[in-house]
Amino acid sequence: MGENLISGDGWAVATVDDLGDGPGFRKVRRALGVTEFGVNAIVLPEGYQTGRHFHDRQQELYFVHRGEIEFAFGDGTTHRLPAGGFARVDAATVRSLRNVGEGEAIYVCVGGQGGYVERDGHTADG
Question: A Pfam family name for this chain (predicted)?
Answer without folding.
Answer: Cupin_2
